[in-house]
Amino acid sequence: MRIDIVTIFPEFFSVLDVSLLGRARQTGLIELGVHDLRDFTSDRHRTVDDTPYGGGAGMVMKPEPWGEALDGILDLSGTLGADAPVVIFPSPAGELFTQKLAQELAAEPQLVFGCGRYEGIDQRVVDYASTRARVRLVSLGDYVLNGGEVATMAMIEAIGRLIPGVVGNPQSLVEESHSDGLLEYPSYTKPGEWRGFEVPPVLLSGNHAAIAKWRHDQQLERTRAVRPDLLPPDLAVAEDAAPRA
Ligand code: ADE
Question: What is the CA(49)–ligand 1 centre distance, in A?
Answer without folding.
Answer: 18
